[in-house]
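Protocol step 4 of 6: record predicted structures for both targets in the notebook before any analysis. Target 1:
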Amino acid sequence: MNSKRLLAIVVSVSTLALPATSFAQNLNITRSILPDQPYTLIYPEVMVASGPPGGPITINHPNAPLQCDLTIVPAEDPNWSAEAAVSAIDRDAVTGAWAETFPGFALGETGTKSYQDATALYYEGTSESSSMDVPITLVHTETVRENRGYALDCIYATSVAEQVRPAVEFIIANFSTRSDADCCVGATPEAEQAPPQ
């Protein structure tokens, strides 16, 4: 399910030890093997994916307080659209739901973002109290395709937003509800790496 790309991609992704700048970064691509739950998740090679087929997928950064979770659930609203979902968002309900996990959660910006093949509802929020013992920022995106609901949530320490937010935006922009999506939105391919001698 996991395959490493040999193509170096110029992506603005950073770790705590690196300044926020563009540099060549190898990527991992995780594709669904289940025909009823297709997706393509593209993320920096340093991040590690875990989760069972058919269950939530989590990608973690080993050197930075960054985690993203992908969940796919059945969806029964044939008229769902990201734009309508943004217009109908219940700020109190969203705040209350996340406050159970992140006490003091405050909902911020809402809108839409683009996946590779779909438009997603987007919102972000912050919490001063979390299990990470530091203030966190949550970036939530979701869409519905062919009776499937896709939710992609990324959580990171607010103090390192400048360093990790580019990686979050890259992961969101390159997510696809298809299992055969290409890489990569917002990246410029460099020459292929030469094989080791």
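Target 2:
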Amino acid sequence: MLYWLSEERGTDLKKTDLKSYFAAILLALLFSAIHSSAAAHPSVPIDIAVTFGKDPLTEKNLTWVTDSASKSPPIVVVQELPSGLWRVFFGSSETVTGGDKTKFKSNKANISGLRKDTTYQYFCSGGASDAWSGRGFFRTGAEAGDFTFLYMADPQAATDLQFSQWGQCLARAHVKFPDARFLAIAGDLVDKGSVENYWDKFFQYGSQVLTNLTVVPAIGNHDSVPGNTFSEHFNLTGNNHGLPDYVYSFDFGNARFVVLSTEKTYAELARGNEKTRRQANQFLDSQISFLRSEVSKSEKKWNVVILHKGVYSGGIYAETDETRYYRAKLALVFDELSIDAVLQGHNHTFDRAFLYCGKTPPGVTADSKSARKGSGTLYLTANTAGSKFYQASKTKPAYLLKHGQPDMQMYTGVTVSDDFMRFDTYCDGDVLFDTFTINEQL
């Protein structure tokens, strides 16, 4: 076999014990079941997350957790399938203490120089002498052609039962859409982002899919509590112009995606301190500038925004002061930029609106299953992928085309082509609850 030992992240291979790394690679290749010793080995990688690099066509980012005291740099070995050369990438790590005082090692690596639209297998480790993960797979991005991705909202689990329900929903979604290229989650991944055990279980119960599917997370209010370790679990390195790592953008196919944060803004505005209010407004204004910049320079046909707190929704958050704040700040910008779809969370009900300047365009009714691109923006809230359901509004808000609470977990498969973008929302595994299409032409 041939092995390509590549220099990554500034590591000087001349000063590296190549024998140790070579032996580690052989172990990963010959004993892919090495992770079976996880119960006895404290440094087996857990909480593995695959995210996009700065160039989704040629890069992936990996994050994983160990409690190893190894001083060696973390390692990822990657092979292009079906029979490409193996490459070695060295990452970086930091020891983290979360808000619950749990200490762990957060490992991150950038996997670059990949072929576009190609499948790879990988193994990762906290260091040359540490245990290895099981085998995972990822596929690099495509710059053209039809594709599908999954969209979910608010797993927000705290108990094993709730996490198992989230894992089952994710597994059913992946069975329904086996060719999905990534998973967008509109915030509140866990019930409290400072509790490390919650993150462990989020990844544990979702590992069947998460180790093999790129995740696009937005940060939610439950994720962003003081002492949270959101950024220590996701390697997010988008082109975000100095904003926090959880504000980012990426291109896939003929679409540009922008992920925004609705956290640490309105809550600070409500405190009454003039300096805090100014800083909070500046944070959202900076994101709006980022959004304008990313959309204006994009040559992609479709533009999608992903955020947590919905601009238009029903239920308990339909008309709160906070909802009105984000609506006033963001909705006109979405109109200005002709944003095609806004994928929301937070509300734990199903909400669908298609609006321009706060009104449903002529010809679009509650019975409509489609609308014309450019005539408005689709606002979608896909209930919850977890088990916490909020009460629907007694009367459907006038701006919503559809609103309800079926008391079942939901997921949405989004199909993107040059001519249309279709949103198929399912509940109870494979029961179609709603479908809506934005067409280039009607």
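Step 5 preliminary note on target 2. Residues 1-17, 27-41 have pLDDT under 50 and may be disordered. The longest helix spans residues 274-296.
Proceed to step 6 after PI sign-off.
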